[in-house]
Structures are given as C-alpha cells and as structure tokens.
C-alpha cells in the first residue's frame, strides 16, 4: 500500500518536472503562450534538475558497453548483439543497456527543434569528432525549409525522432489537429529514411490523451529527458553556463535535452570532451519500450 502510494507520488512528481521541459527557445516566443511556459520551465529546470527522477523505477545505474556505432548506420535491431542494444526507460527517460551485465557509463544526447539550420552542421561535426550518435527531434516547420540538413542528419547515422509539425501545445488542439501534427512528421521522416520514427517528444514535454493514443497507434515511444541543458532559457545562457548545467546534473544513463541552436553548438565540444574523459559512451536506443 505504502509502496503503491510512493509510486503514484513519484509519478506525479515526474510529470510536474517534465512539464518544465522542452523550454524551447526564444525563437518560439511568437506563440503567446510560449513565453509564459518558458518562465515556468526556467524556474523548474533550475530548482529541480530533472536529473533526479525516480528512485522507484528499476536500477539506478544503467550501464553498458558499447557503442559508437562504428561504421554501420543503424543496423536493424536483430543484427545487433546484446551489448549493442539500449532502451529508454519509459518512466524515468534514462537510457539503459539491454544486457544487464554491461556496466559502462552511457549517455543519450538529444537535439530538439531540428533542423533549425543556424548551427545544425556545427553540431553534426562536433558529434562526429566524438563518434557520437544522437536523437534529433524533428519539427516539420523547420524540416521543410532545411530538407538537405534533415537528410544530412540521417545520412550521418543519427536517429530521427518526431517533435510534431508546428511545435505547439497539443492539449489545445482538436483530435484531428493532434493527429495531423504527429502523423505528418512521421510521413516526412519516412520519406527521408524509409522508416517511420520510433521516438516522440511532445513540445514543452506535454502530451495530451489524444497524442498518447496517436503515438501508440504509430508504434512510437514517447520520451522526455532526465538532464536539462537549459539552453532554452530566456535570456539565452552563455555557452559555459550550458556546459556547467549539464555537467553538474549529469548521471549515468542521462538523457540530455539540447536544442539545435548556436549557443548549444558553442558549448557542445566542451561537454562531450568532459563526458568522454569521464568515461561516458554516447549511445542511442535501439528498441521501443512503450510502457
Ligand atoms: Zn521543442
């Protein structure tokens, strides 16, 4: 009974923390609600680093072996050996190795609101330098104007995730709009990669009942993050503040939320250098864990 209560409490806490999320940029302040939400997020993000998810869920320390996806670009799952397979825990959004005997330090890098264009290539080049793969959460509005960059991200072996078309609040949309927001981006990604995306991240970290249903129908896993870079704050933080924020809240299995922004690109080399020196490997999930 007590345990169940604790689990419910923890779930509520996580939901509250997640709402603070995908802060999303000054560039999005066009939407009237955005700035409001940004402020909320800033505060939440700073005071409670989402890095403290739940003690309730599974083992605290993911581990792992592997990966740097050497030469092959995302080989099909069934061709991967156990120590090359990872999943994101749907409760705390951390990444774990499928093989529980792996105990290497791992981290998942994610870049939202992509491909924005200003710094996308810079970020790609830094990731290559560290042999790091990431999930890029794609918005249709940016992808259609930067199609070659979308293809470049895919060609370099990264995972394309769905972040909706317009990057707006799903909860204020009609069911038809929600469906269109999500399915249209999966269609676009399929055009580029030949496969529908497996991972979904809702704008501002907020799903709706309908979006959860569409995600399920599409066979996707929804995920927020466990380490917030705060690169979405307004005014924009300096690159070294982003570096400090990430490194000070990092944990094994961390799922780091970045954005496809210039200040993030400016911080990224330092962050990846430090994480490499600490023994982290940069890995992406290879399978879906919906619930
Ligand atoms: Zn976003």
Would you give an account of this structure?
38% of the residues lie in helices and 13% in strands. It has 291 residues and is of the alpha/beta class. It has a single domain (2-47, 62-71, 83-282), classed as TIM Barrel (Alpha-Beta Barrel), CATH 3.20.20.370. The strands form 3 sheets. Strands 3, 4, 5, 8, 9 and 10 form a 6-stranded parallel sheet that branches. A two-stranded antiparallel sheet has the order 1-2. Helix 6 (175-193) packs parallel to helix 7. The longest helix has 19 residues, at 175-193. The two termini are 22 Å apart. 49% of the residues are buried. Zinc ion (ZN) is lined by residues 22, 24, 112-113, 163, 167, 203.
List keywords for this structure.
291 residues, 9 helices, 6-stranded parallel sheet, two-stranded antiparallel ribbon, alpha/beta, TIM Barrel, binds zinc ion
Annotate the secondary structure layout.
Blueprint: H1 2-19, H2 32-47, E1 86-88, E2 95-97, E3 106-114, H3 120-129, E4 134-138, H4 140-143, H5 147-155, E5 159-162, H6 175-193, E6 199-200, H7 209-217, E7 221-222, E8 227-228, H8 239-249, E9 254-259, H9 262-277, E10 281-282
Helix pairs in contact: 3-9, 6-7, 8-9
The structure holds zinc ion (ZN).
